[in-house]
Amino acid sequence: MKFLNYAKEHWRLLLLILFVYVGFLIVKIPAAFAVQFLDADDELASMLQLQGVSGTVWNGRADSARVKQLNLTGLEWDLNVLPMLLGNLDVDVEFKLGEGHGRANVALGLGGGVELSDLQARIPAQALMPLLYGFPVSLVGDFTANLDSVQIEQGQRFAAEGRLVWNGAGLSAPQAFSFGDLALKLEPEGEGSKGVVSDGGGALSVEGIIDVQPNGQYRMNLRLASRESGNSPLKSALGFLGRPDSQGKVTFNRSGRLAL
Questions:
Q1: E strand or H helix at 132, and its extent?
Q2: In which element (H, E) is residue 135 found?
Q3: pTM of the full predicted structure?
Q4: Are residues 170 and 241 both part of a single domain?
Q5: Which has the closest alpha carbon to 141: 156, 155, 124, 121?
Q6: Do 147 and 243 sit in the same domain of this protein?
Q7: Are 92 and 196 contained in the same domain?
Q8: Cα separation, 61 vs 79, whole angstroms
Q9: Average pLDDT per run of 10 along the chain, which is 260 residues long?
């Protein structure tokens, strides 16, 4: 009886103690134990597979992580507390991909939306080749990403802001080409995104726009030219894309859909 009276008078304190205790249990859940539930979900397992997991759900590490076609190593995460009180999952991650590395904040909302923020990465182009499986090309150079925000809601929103640079861009197969640095500056436009393509003054001159709709549909409109003198291999290759205009530039248009 005395306990019931005490509970009535101090229910807020008891609720706080219970909340802290439950939070403590969650913090101490081994990450390896939680991964069993991830593997049991076929849909999640098809997108993310973790190996060599250590630490806790709150703060842990995976020696390797397969995210769709990419194999990451040294994946580390650190869950943030305050957003969870509002029903959002918010985590800081760091990873390695090939000889490259990156870090970002990942937030998952109650409605299923995903937001990447403060994404910074430098990845060798070769490490991204699994994304081009089936294409008879081999990339050289490396990619630098500095993205302030990427907001994705399936079929409803794809808004990105930041800059991507392909440093030392080129191909080693089916024929060797050196393009120089290429850049893509992204900014939100409505519920989609607009990207401005430019070059750094290398062998390949590029200018144009890439529009991405909220559902991932994109339309690319580029003008390409070679800065190399004479009838260079690059100039000859561009000729297969179309007839040069009066300024010696070839128009290249393409549309498709991003696999979000």
A1: none
A2: none
A3: 0.82
A4: yes
A5: 124
A6: yes
A7: yes
A8: 12
A9: 42 46 50 54 63 83 86 90 74 93 88 88 94 88 97 90 97 92 97 97 96 95 92 89 90 88
